[in-house]
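Example for tutorial group B:
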């Protein structure tokens, strides 16, 4: 029973992460020069590899997002999504450890720059754990369970987008205020 519930949670996570990957890759593909700047700012790749790596990351993210939403019961695309999320978390953690927080994460759903923080590392680890639930048991096959999981994934995504919009609004207000105004 717990295995079925975890598998349903994993399916909801698959829909949620698939939507996040699709929208994030679309944002990167729309502003490839900006994303190349983000990849370069991480300082983990030689400058000559940055353009190719940025393009490859955006297309891999798009492909994994499509595969997660396809409904195929292949574990490799869930594992690939988990690996990509954990690689992004590691890249962020390395830069936070270096004291380089004021670079854009390159992971947002908008074009606004989001500085690095441990909350982003934790978010990626949590998304990986959510996908790991898919491996807890057999994939749900009853239409009601599957439709509930799909709707839960869509709802999670909409709540996540709302959260990002609210944080972006808050960030823009904080950065727009003159320093020392105390209006916070």
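The residue assignment follows.
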């Amino acid at each position: 029973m717990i295995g079925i519930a975890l598998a349903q949670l994993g399916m909801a996570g698959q829909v949620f992460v698939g939507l996040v990957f699709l929208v994030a890759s679309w944002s990167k593909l729309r502003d490839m020069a900006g994303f190349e700047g983000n990849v370069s700012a991480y300082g983990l790749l030689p400058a000559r590899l940055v353009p190719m790596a940025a393009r490859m990351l955006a297309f891999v993210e798009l492909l994994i997002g499509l595969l997660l939403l396809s409904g195929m019961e292949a574990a490799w695309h869930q594992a690939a999504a988990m690996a990509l999320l954990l690689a992004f978390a590691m890249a962020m953690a390395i830069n936070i450890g270096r004291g380089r927080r004021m670079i854009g994460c390159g992971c947002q759903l908008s074009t606004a720059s989001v500085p690095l923080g441990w909350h982003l590392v934790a978010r990626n680890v949590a998304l990986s754990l959510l996908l790991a639930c898919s491996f807890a048991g057999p994939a749900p096959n009853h239409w009601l369970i599957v439709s509930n999981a799909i709707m839960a994934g869509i709802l999670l995504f909409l709540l996540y987008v709302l959260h990002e919009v609210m944080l972006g609004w808050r960030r823009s207000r904080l950065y727009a205020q003159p320093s020392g105004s105390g209006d916070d």
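The chain has a mean pLDDT of 85. Compare this with the pattern of hydrophobic and polar residues in the output above.
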